[in-house]
Amino acid sequence: MARRSSLFTRSKMIRYFKFMEKFAIGALLIGSVAYYTQIKNIEDKEKEKFLSKYTKNTETTTTTATPATTPVTKQ
Question: pTM here?
């Protein structure tokens, strides 16, 4: 009977390991997808920040250059 009992626990343990292997693979896949989307969002935010800074700089140079050409009268 001890032999049957150990065989039962061994097969139970093998099933448990197979389940945990599938769980670990699933967790790695979900984690890697989440990590990729997070990195992608960060890169998109940095890109937008850079582009907005660049467009603001070009707009400010054109808008500040226009009033400087008008004559200033002092009283």
Answer: 0.52
